[in-house]
Design a protein that fits this description.
Distance between the termini: 90 Å
Number of strands: 2
CATH class of one domain: Mainly Alpha
Radius of gyration: 29 Å
CATH architecture of one domain: Alpha Horseshoe
Length: 594
């Protein structure tokens, strides 16, 4: 070998060594970038399905290239409106790249929004299947694989808030009813102590069985039916039993009846429900307790009394998952406030606003003639459950404090703070009118004073009554849903209050105004009754009366006087309200399960 060739080889060797050393120096930076982009495994995958194990090991470095090709194809199919085909590709991408949050967001959004609305509104059960599949994908798979991706928490909260809790989908009422039916048996309580008991419930089977009283019930159930024989199936079987006492035959029913009313059976019920919340709904009861304290409705008589959120409401779940994500990112004290965090904060803010505007749920049965395949209506009606959404003024202070905290958090960014301030100002204006029309004048004045102090504009210099009159006229010009619901319920509550204190002229005037709004609403939205329509005015009258009678802000003597006056002086209205009450009672408790 010539000396020249030897020198070339030596130099080449040194260059190669230098390149290898240089690459090694860059490795830490590359790994840091991969970690920042969430393209690195947070922890080794355990108990992975065979398909995922094969894809993550056998394909090696080529996996990223395959994902790129599939992603480009999925995006093209999405643009072409071929959502079902795009879904299949997205499933492959999640298998190949489970730590890539964007594909989980796309997959959930595609199912909840695109595929669901591709199904006719006459098939709400099928629509609900895809909406539910969308949020379950994020909750059960995406977030466990990417627990530090705030974008997944934000998207999950958005689906609960906008898709399930909103009114844009023709089948939105069906979604709310189904959601409440599924979660209701676990969370249908207005007592914070119940949620604290859920949080304190043991999580391990050995801990549960160590209690002799619980073990006796468990042994009896396992002897009575094989469905209770294994710990994994015990909890789901017990929940099914609570919905249908006869599901597993007379032996199981006899076991339950023998322990009926005992502290042990009550405790077992709490433990089972806590287990279902943790394993099926992926929710932490202790965190729910914390959110109840932070965001639960305010008791006007006792601000220290904690009233839980209504966890049957989709917006409560939007708050949960947004707050869960924000709790995760808050561990990084040196982080920069990015847009995704602002949008997640807004999920909480808007959900609290929604709970103020239509946070009270009333479920009732209606007779509907379903549409047959040929397009005609069936002769025999079927009984379906409907939902009526009403304002919950107790949520205002929670919203107000949350927005002020949010404005403080983003005070260093003028544009973001200003955008929050605009929404806050509009919400204060709406709240003033809502409290005023409900007859809660001191609260309306307090909010109006806050509005004038924080936003000293010429529009707010007039007296409270004049401001509310002008605001109400503006509302009529832009009447829509759910504004119509808020206005009618608030006006009827105000009319009941005025009638109770003897201001009959004002009461009848306010009642006529509610009637006019109702008539106007039906005229304007007659072609959208299936999606946006209100129940009958008689039913709204009844729900408004119930709100007044159950509202502790109104003295008991005033509520008694109201009922007495209606019974004696307006017997026709009294009979009408009684009829509505009987119809609702025949369908079961209206404030609990749908």
């Amino acid at each position: 070998m010539k000396s020249r060739d030897i020198w070339v080889c030596v130099i080449g060797l040194f260059v190669a060594i230098g390149l290898i050393l240089g690459a090694g120096v860059q490795l830490d930076s590359i790994n840091a970038t991969r970690k920042a982009m969430k393209l690195v495994m947070n922890e080794p995958l355990e108990n992975a399905p065979p398909s995922l194990a094969f894809a993550t090991v056998a394909m090696g470095a080529f996996r990223g290239l395959v994902v790129d090709v599939l992603w480009i194809r999925a995006d093209a199919l999405k643009e072409q409106g071929q959502f079902f085909d795009a879904r299949q590709l997205a499933e492959w991408i999640t298998t190949l790249q489970p730590r890539f949050p964007d594909v989980w967001v796309f997959q959930a959004w595609n199912m909840a929004y695109n595929i669901s609305v591709a199904i006719p509104s006459s098939q709400p059960q099928q629509r609900w299947h895809w909406v539910k599949s969308g949020y379950e994908l994020l909750r059960d798979k995406g977030i466990p694989l990417n627990p530090k991706s705030l974008a997944l928490y934000q998207e999950l909260g958005r689906i609960f808030q906008h898709k399930v809790g909103g009114i844009t989908d023709d089948a939105h009422k069906f979604y709310k009813v189904q959601f409440a039916k599924e979660i209701g048996p676990l969370v249908d309580s207005t007592d914070q102590a119940y949620f604290e008991a859920l949080a304190a419930a043991p999580t391990e089977w050995s801990q549960i069985y160590a209690d002799a009283n619980l073990a006796a019930i468990i042994d009896a159930l396992q002897s009575a039916h094989e469905a209770f024989s294994k710990p994994d199936s015990f909890f789901s079987s017990y929940m099914a039993l609570t919905q249908d006492p006869n599901k597993y035959g007379p032996k199981v029913r006899q076991v339950i009846e023998s322990y009926l009313g005992s502290p042990a059976l009550r405790r077992l019920g709490v433990i089972v429900r806590a287990h279902q919340l943790r394993t099926v709904w992926k929710m932490d009861p202790a965190f729910m307790v914390e959110l109840n304290r932070l965001y639960g409705p305010v008791d006007f008589n006792d601000p220290n009394h904690v009233i839980p959120l209504d966890w049957r409401h989709p917006d409560s779940h939007a708050i949960y998952w947004a707050a869960k994500g924000l709790q995760m990112v808050a561990q990084d004290q040196g982080r920069q406030l990015e847009t995704v965090e602002l949008n997640t904060d807004r999920i909480i803010m808007h959900s609290l606003q929604n709970l103020f505007r239509y946070g009270r749920l009333l479920f009732f049965d209606v007779a509907v003639r379903p549409q047959k395949e040929d397009g005609t209506l069936a002769e025999e009606p079927v009984i379906l459950t409907d939902v009526f959404l009403r304002p919950d003024l107790r949520m205002f202070d929670r919203y107000h404090k949350a927005v002020l905290a949010l404005m403080e958090k983003y005070s260093d960014t003028e544009t973001r703070e200003e955008s929050l301030a605009v929404g806050h100002r509009n919400m204060l204006r709406n709240a003033v009118l809502a409290f005023y029309q409900s007859g809660l004048i001191p609260q309306a004045q307090r909010i109006y004073n806050e509005l004038r102090a924080r936003y000293p504009l010429d529009d707010f210099k007039m007296p409270l009554a004049e401001f509310c009159r002008r605001k109400f006229i503006d509302e009529l010009k832009s009447l829509g849903m759910p504004d119509a619901t808020e206005q009618i319920v608030s006006l009827l509550k105000q009319s009941y209050y005025l009638y109770a204190i003897g201001s009959d002229d004002e009461a009848f005037g306010t009642e006529r105004l509610a009637q006019q709004i109702y008539d106007y609403y039906h005229k304007e939205f007659s072609d959208e009754q299936g999606r946006l329509g209100l129940p009958t005015l008689a039913r709204i009258r009844y729900t408004a009366l119930v709100d007044v009678l159950e509202d502790p802000q109104y003295p008991s003597y005033l509520r008694q006087n109201l009922i007495a006056r209606i019974r004696n002086e307006r017997p026709h209205l009294f009979e009408l309200l009684q009829k509505e009450e009987q119809q609702l009672q025949s369908a079961g408790p209206q404030s609990s399960q749908p």
